[in-house]
Design a protein that fits this description.
about 500 residues, 4 domains, alpha+beta, FAD-bd_PCMH, Alpha-Beta Plaits
Amino acid sequence: MINSLTPFVTYIKNFKILNQVRCASQVLPQLSSEKYNVKRKSFGIIEASDVDYFKTVLSEDRVLTDDNDVLPFNIDWIKNCRGQSKLVLKPKTTQEVSTILKYCNQKRLAVCPQGGNTGLVGGSVPVFDEIVLSFILMNKIISLDEISGALICEAGCILENLDNYVREHNLIMPLDLGAKGSCHIGGNISTNAGGLRLLRYGNLHGSVLGVEAVKADGTVIDCLKSLKKDNTGYHLKHLFIGSEGTLGLVTKVAIHCPALPKAVSVGFFGVENFENILRLYASAKSSLGEILSAFEMADNDSISSTVKNLKIPNPISDYPFYVLLETHGSDETHDSEKLTRFLEKEMESGLIIDGTVTSDPAKMQTIWNLRENIAGAGLIEGYIFKYDVSLPLRSYYNLVPLLRQRLGTKASRVYGYGHVGDGNIHINVVVPKYSQEASSLLEPYIFEEVSKLKGSISAEHGVGFRKPHFIHYSKDANALQLMQQLKQLMDPNGILNPYKVLPEI
């Protein structure tokens, strides 16, 4: 059982301190344009007159030009990408966003939209001198229908704040991410974020009821209805879900919130090998049925890295693989008994070597801390190459041993963890420091292997800046041509989040 409990906020606080120390020491990542050899497109150059104009649209304190103020908006949180923006704008309303974009489009000034800046593929930071349009002040909750579960809010609302708010009304947000304390709902929708409970509540294409978005020319597209059924013409909201701010900027969201589960339980199990994880997943679906809300896996290196680097306790002993299983139901006694029977059955079968089941909120949070902090733990050991791919379950873990063999001693760690329930694995390759040699060993090799297995090179993190030239491993030429046509139609000057998502023609 779990004895040592440390509140989740401690880890988040420590991670923020780690980032602050790195920034303060001026150990900045290499400029993205130099690191990846990108040429600036023929956009306009920001002049003093442009800054003066923006100060007439926004109050002066919402127009940032000081280098120290702008720097955090130029760097992604894993310190992989760094842009060269000299200007950050903080609108508070859709009309302000519209006015800014209309002006930028006329002047051909490129814009980089930014939410919580928690992305992992460089999609939320500029590459050159794009104007950063931060949604941090567009954080109002507009309405909540407690009967239908329809929440309407602005794009800059932090996911965790929304979840806390709807929980007061016996509802929950349909997605849950490790970055929930910082990420914005607008960014979640723009990247079609998946998260920890997609198995139970589905993806955002199903949960999002409507959006309000602003096109590059300032036109406001109002598709903010909170209806579950609206079959009048093309479903335009889907153009903005997952397009990463390249077709338009999401300013408001209508999203369906499921009922707050009355009973929540978590199981954490040690497993001998990955084949047994698949057998355990099949058994969980059969035994737990409708109450199964999450089925996560992590290999030994994933967990040991988190335990070592962040001092988060492991509630069970050391095993080759781990499974975190969660249930959401309406009857605590019934669900707990169901989960306990499942644990006893599979320990007897040998699929589970050791495990613990709990319904205690503090103990459940400790277990989730172990899983949610894997992504950040490796940053302490060096530079991380992060990959987010979808694979058929039979091939889910295949790439991890292949990469370990391919990199050998050049990598400090290669580990895999992720969402078995939706086929999404995260592969982290930790090296002492970034090198072109390591990068060349990984890319495009990993994407070639994903393609051979009929997988996707991006499961939930998006394409961003890091993957446009690899997107052809997941989309054929005809699909890419249609995407280019959509981009040309909706943003003919290409000012919205340039250098992202689509490859150069």
